[in-house]
Write a structure and sequence with these properties.
- This protein is of the alpha/beta class.
- It folds into 2 domains: about 20-60 and about 285-409, no CATH class; about 90-270, TIM Barrel (Alpha-Beta Barrel).
- It has helices at about 5-15, 15-20, 20-35, 50-55, 60-65, 65-80, 95-100, 140-155, 165-175, 175-185, 185-210, 235-250, 270-280, 295, 300-310, 320-325, 325-340, 360-375, 395-400, and strands spanning about 45-50, 105, 110-115, 160-165, 220, 255, 285-290, 315, 345-355.
- It is globular, with a radius of gyration of 21 Å.
Length: about 400
Amino acid sequence: MLSQVGQTTEILKKEEAMNLSTETRERIDRYFKAFRGEADIVPILAQINEHVVKLCGGDMREAYTNAEKFVALNLAAFQYYGLDMPGFYYDIYNIEAEALGQRMNWEPDRMPDIDRRYPLIREHSDLDRLRSPDFRKSARMPYVLEVMRRCYDLGLPVRVRFCSPFSLAVNVRGIEPLLIDMLTSPEFVHRLFTFLTEEVLIPWVQTQREAIGQTEVSASGADAAASPPIVTVEILEEFVMPYVARMNERINNVTSVGYWGSSYLYRHPEKFQKMLELMASVSPSLLMCSDPDVAIIGPEPYVTFAREKNIPLMLGIDTLLIQEGPAEEIVDRCRRYVLAGAKTGRLIVFFNDISINTPPWNVHTAIAAVRHFGRYPIEDRPLASFRMPEMESSEAFMKRYRSTSPLLW
């Protein structure tokens, strides 16, 4: 089984294809070392979607349909910000639904999204007419496969991703009808989830693995819709985690993350604990907990749970905070999370989403703060010890970078 840590070998084998610099290799390796408790600095990852396109002056629709362009744009952002892992965040939640026939919305300054006015399954009988997509030809599935192949050929970490069963069901049925179905027609819901799991997601994950010749590489699902207060712990137990578990049983090395809303349960200790247990059951190698939950109740409960379970911890920092600032609050949040989370010995910091309107300076500020306070061995450095280093403007960087990556323009 090729785990996240095990991917390091494949990266190093292919590093010559991209001529990765020593500094870039060290940054990527830092992420994998964090899982072993061997990182020199707390690594930083970020979800960057529309921001990448704006930063590089690209076209939104082209970025989400042209794999070559998408990879080039993301590599530029990865190098400009000095992140520890290139993200390559296409619109993960939409790929399978679109391939099934779900209508999409395309706006000039936004990545594509589900057109929720027209759910694919309006009546229960609509499920009977659905068929598995052609995983190498349907909608933008070929685009995703090409993104993966290009990353693999460059010697970069390849992410096998999918929309987890619950969130996919929400996208093709609609959240309100689906929740009503759970109360009035649970047998239909299980039939829907079985179809999506067995006929769509399992073969889609396997197709992605085959595209890069790594049949057991880890696959990670995204499942933000399956979060309180949208769902209850009971719904998680009956309709959410069992289908992720089924995927893992059938094809191995499958996880699911992106659950939030645990702060809604914090006043009910048993339910709060149960939700964390359920999250860990579908992602046993990484506990991912993000703002607003962490900001509301503090990082300490998540740190305690991660230490008890002896698993790495990822703490996600709020989108709006990084977008709006002020810088002092960004630095303070980063310091607090690093000091608390580093007690696990295996901390990763994640920026929930760098929005299209986020000033690059704010992103640099957050990264510099994590670098400053997150160097092992972690010391309780005072907030006043932080000094913002000099940063190259995005305009100057892109002007310099375009000479080596003409595909960006």
